[in-house]
């Protein structure tokens, strides 16, 4: 993974930068420059890649954020924003010549507004803390990435995080009403608010999922939903993954949108069962967890229908949760799938492609071939309802060459996803991990067009450079346009 | 002005090449039913995409459809209906409101204007259902964003940008979007004779309940009378309308529960099937203000609980107005008499108190040329928006000035 060459001029003035940043950030511990302390920030959830930042700053007010950005812009210093650093694509990987801007101190919920069914939070509030704050009143915040105990709402917006319930409740982008953002030039602006829709271009919509490349979020307004009356889950096992995939398709085609619909393949089932004894059947090739929420009468009605569909699709195991405890047990294995796989292998890499669901059998078969080719095992967990696949590639970083083989295997899986009409990443983001694969999905011109958007927000390219885009173009170069005057075959009359 | 009817994607490319070579400005539309929204566009050629029509991909089990931009919504609805599916954001038909026949609107038009009906409050806006766009930028380059899958964070989410850009960034040729099952049953609970502030509280209670109310509107008496639903016409009272959908047993259960919850606010009734459909089309299509005398119509988005206070402030400036509420109070439709000076722009926007935004949806060409139909942005956002436009369309040939007079364009 190649990152942009550090700017020697910036590195040379590090002491000066530290001194000035200490004047901006009031908290004496808010500027970190000692190597031992900087270690805490050297990677995010994609820990295979590490880099110490030049300096880390932990501001506490939006004014400090604005001052820091203004200062960095003036001094031509790159900035990497960071929430909790749980991201899985290296989006918060520091830069050797960059300031790491940690927003962990922005950890307060500012307002819970039931009149308008929303909450106003600082960006460093964890995803789960929002739900915790409103749970007693019967509300929750819907997107629930598996890292929700640690990941921050600011980071969720940067990555447009999903979770297991986005089939019914949408991703972050569908649940955010407004943000306050600081531009790289240090201007504090609001996008959206407690009302719906944008007055002009939907800047909030593009900020969401922009991986820290467009602005730094200092406040967030999210939609709150009323917690469902009842929740219930079914565990359904199939002799083949084709049958499981077919069942998912038929449930949806029959007009049922479950709150969540997860699938695990045999290796994942076995790893999870060994790890947390959820009572998963071990003689099946694929396991579905289908969760429903709503009034009891709806759950009973739909559970019956889903049971019938499952039987028709050849299910050999159908178990319905009878208690909340049992439902949690069903989920325990799925939620622990990553650590479970971590236990059966020294290292693993989690991929994140999305595919048209009908392609699942084909993709699984091809993945098995690739697994043999690379000599690396793979376990699959799958947000089956929306086609988001998480293959976990098992490897041992201590074996020379295995990491590289794993990376190659992962890249082949993602290329396969694109080949069948899917995408490189469903919810983890591009970051550095998939940066060099962007060309698989986008033409050169498409990528340039995306970077022109970046230029509108951050013309000098100071925010999180080296992420998302394989080639960094200068904005001036992107702006150029050549019109072929006089070369038209029909100079006067267009042929329509 | 030259009229250009697009039939194939290649023709879009040709038009752009021609336009760029000669610096010709293009007024772009689908069927043209919404060209009355926004600033009048001064152009050298009018480009219509309604001939670029046809559903190209539909996979009901994957909840996805792809259609050429000029495909009529009515056609898409028919095809979806055969599989028991629908567009969940209740795409409205502003045709009659803006002086056109009903049923002409295109899928490209609805997404490029990001227009959503009553279901927006729960199901999300048009933009939330747009998965992918193909088309051409004002540079004449083929442009593609998004995909056909529901979960995708690969690169910037430019679909959000295209949605609501009124043809100022791209000429979209193909839209890919999410579709959803049509609910087994739909019920509408009516609560009669409720005042404005109480109505907003009632809608808040309903939307905050666990009964998944999927639309909530308030029609003052005069508006209710025009709804075309006999129940409402004969009552001579204001009405709160709450829509409940779901599997049969569930919709019925919820309907009873909501009626129980609403009993404290007033007498309740319920609408089934066709009447329910008629009412929500009336709400979404702004049927209340489709009248012989085409007054000025504003669409105002506010924090839902703030609707009564907004109306109170507005009444201090404007006496002769009609309104109704959708989105639980978050959307206020306002009709003012034609002779209202500057279309009431100052009062409408001043009353926002900095929260929300107002868009002129119907107004004469001269009014639209003289005021800002779209809410003016703060200078920083305006600068960013203008640069975004420049990135897509450096020569400003696509619908120049339609949204804002960026850098004096249009």
Q: Can you characterise this structure?
A:
The complex is a heterodimer of chains A (496) and B (410). In chain A, strands 12, 13, 14, 15, 16, 17, 18 and 19 form an eight-stranded antiparallel beta sheet that branches. In chain A, β8 and β9 form a beta hairpin. Among the domains of chain A are: 109-226, 2-Layer Sandwich (Uridine Diphospho-n-acetylenolpyruvylglucosamine Reductase, domain 3), CATH 3.30.465.10; 230-338, 2-Layer Sandwich (Alpha-Beta Plaits), CATH 3.30.70; 345-428, Alpha-Beta Plaits (2-Layer Sandwich). Chain A starts with 7 loop residues before the first helix and ends in a 17-residue tail after the last helix. Chain A is 35% helix and 19% strand. Chain A is globular and about 70 Å long. Residues 486-496 of chain A have low confidence and may be disordered. With 496 residues, chain A is α+β, with helices and mostly antiparallel strands. Chain B has helices at 9-22, 73-82, 107-112, 120-123, 126-129, 158-162, 196-207, 221-224, 230-235, 248-262, 273-284, 307-317, 345-350, 365-370, 379-392, and strands spanning 2-5, 26-29, 45-48, 55-59, 64-68, 85-86, 130-137, 142-146, 170-178, 180-181, 185-192, 215-219, 239-246, 268-272, 296-301, 322-326, 331-336, 357-362. The model of chain B has no long low-confidence stretch (mean pLDDT 96). Chain B folds into three domains: 1-182 and 376-410, Uridine Diphospho-n-acetylenolpyruvylglucosamine Reductase, domain 3; 185-284, Alpha-Beta Plaits, CATH 3.30.70; 292-370, Alpha-Beta Plaits (2-Layer Sandwich), CATH 3.30.70.240. In chain B, 61% of the residues are buried. Chain B has a five-stranded antiparallel beta sheet. The longest helix of chain B has 15 residues, at 248-262. Chain B is of the alpha+beta class. Chains A and B meet through α8, α9, α11 and α17 of A and α1, β8, α6, β10 and α10 of B. Chain B: InterPro entries: FAD-bd_PCMH, FAD-bd_PCMH-like_sf, FAD-bd_PCMH_sub2, FAD-linked_Oxase-like_C, Oxid_FAD_bind_N. Chain B: Residues 1-182 form the FAD-binding PCMH-type domain.
